[in-house]
Automatic annotation (TrEMBL):
Residues 7-18 have a biased composition (Polar residues). This is Choline transporter-like protein. Keywords: Antiport, Cell membrane, Glycoprotein, Membrane, Transmembrane, Transmembrane helix, Transport. It catalyses: choline(out) + n H(+)(in) = choline(in) + n H(+)(out). It comes from Dicentrarchus labrax. Coiled coil: none annotated.
Amino acid sequence: MTPHRYTPSSSAAVQSETAAGAAPPGPYYGEPHKFDPTFRGPVRRRSCTDVLCCLIFILVILSYVALGIVAWLHGDPKKVLHPTDSYGQFCGQKGTSNAKKPILFYFNILKCTNPTILINLQCPTTQMCVSKCPDKFATYTEMQLQHKLSKSYWEYYRLFCKPGFNNPDKPVSQVLRDEDCPSMIVPSRPFFQRCLPDFITLNGTVTVANRTRFKDALEMARSVTELQHAAKGITGLVDTKELGIKIVEDYAKSWTWILIGLLLSFAVSLVFILLLRFTAGLLLWMTIITVILLLAYGMWYCSMELSQLRLRPGSDVAIIEVGLQTDLQIYLQLTQTWIILLVSLGATEASILLMLIFLRRRVRVAIALLREASKAIGHIMSTLFYPVITFLLLTVFISYWAVTAVYLASSGEAVYKVMSPDVSCPYANTTCNPEIFNKTNISKATLCLGSQCLFAFYGGETSYHQYLFLLQLSNLLVFLWLVNFSLALEQCTLAGTFASYYWARRKPQDIPPCPLFSSFSRALRYHTGSLAFGALILSVVQLIRIILEYLEQKLKGIDNSLSRFIMHCLKCCFWCLEKLIRYMNHNAYVMVAIYGKNLCTSAREAFFLLMRNVVRVAVLDRVTDFLLFLGKVLIAGGVGVIAFFFFTRKIPVIQEEVPNLNYYWVPLLTVVIGSYLIAHGFFSVYATCVDTLFLCFCDDLERNDGSSEKPFLMSPELHRILGKSSQAR
């Protein structure tokens, strides 16, 4: 295969096209690359770039490992997972007095409606570890009366009193003041190692021990509704754990089918990529038409469901009134749900149609470039599997960050705070010492009657404990840095690989052997500093955005229009800044992979090169990304539809094989999200290939003129499509 050489007429066409569509070279747009007869693609003789940042990056990684070791030595995840009593001791912990007491019991569960439970994640009442929950209703007053008849009543009741207390004749008022025993016990059942009232519905009425109303030891009237509100205060803290266990059960039952769905999406994505090489134009147009038809069908289906629900009573309830529900069928019975879906699908359909109408020529240009990218990937198929390496790296980094965060969060000492039933107590939520608390005047204060010194959370007074928050921020920053470095390494490696394809005079004969491994070695050996530099800049901006989101959550209750306006402006500015840095980094990595220069120089040259070809950038950038996005949506949506029909037993042939699940949406969402990520992994290779070929094409136009002395290295089809596209408009 001989290299294609252009005639002088083609050179003149390029020059006229440059005058019409591209920005002329000048001081503002930088100087274009001059012709170099020795240039044969990615520079092989290189030197290390951004060495200082490379050294800092290595030191940070070593420090990050040290942080994980320190957190592992000080932390104890059991502090987060297991219930603790009022003295900070674990229920059911071996080697302690609670070894045979795995369940947490609340002396006065009615206090769990106090707002402080949301602040400290602890109910402001004495909490004891017990071996079993009470199975009968009784008050302390009733126990004292019955104790005179039989000692068995006291022997049973004292199981739920403080250890060592054995004085059933002590006055009730003093017992409740000293929190020696609960004022009453109600039939309960263990719920995630916590005793909660055992509610039973009789004839449509919720009861406890066949009662709807009862009196406590102080003869105060209580109702089952109060118990329900108190139980919700606790279950609100552990519902997530219950949901998590049910989700784990669903995964255990359906993991084989989830794996089959992901393998199906892998096969479909691979077939889609292979077909793009031979039928790129036809396949992409079919994808666009299929997505349009699917959206139209979705709109029709939503309108039909909406017309039926409007005749059904109770369907006009707002979603916000329903709240968060794990059963998705509840939302499907609301008209507001289908209205939101209908509007969303309609807006998406209109956007796609408008883009096709006004950008139809640009769509054809993008398809041509994707066809050329298909040829490059076809010659270097190993690039399709490089995202697996990135996935493994990200898995390691995410796991290390999560484990380190949990150990840091659980590496404190037991901290005790004043818990008061009266929220106006001035000492509420202040630190206290349980050993000397009864000797202080806090519990005797007028507004703090009944206050107790209870375990609140784990913290500490040492320097290590005081800087735990900063250590968590450092953990997050380094995690973001490592994640962005992994993505940068992938982009630089793939860019160097596809650049070696583009600059080969004879394709595929002149493509270097093992181009992917060679590009990976160059990026890691010479440009770790440059990749780390770009990743650090992006990570800092992302961390600032996370902090802004956190501050916005904290300021939600403050009615200050100015602060909300400033917060929204800051969020918008940093969002735009992140997008800009991400785009500039991506193009800079391509230039680093080709020319081997440092990050700043590469970013400047990439920026000026794109500015000199700004019309072509507008033609290709968004349209190409849009076409690839449609491909990902089609693959994920198609596999998701099959999974939906399977898990809802709507495929008669194999409906007996469907496992019984708590929530069918658990495996369904896993398959859909997993399919999208798999398709994204394949198409990210395509996106990098397109961007690399485009930058190489623009550089080729500046280096060469198509003459026999300075021939173009692009394919004739690529020159015909891209070289004339801007002039045509």
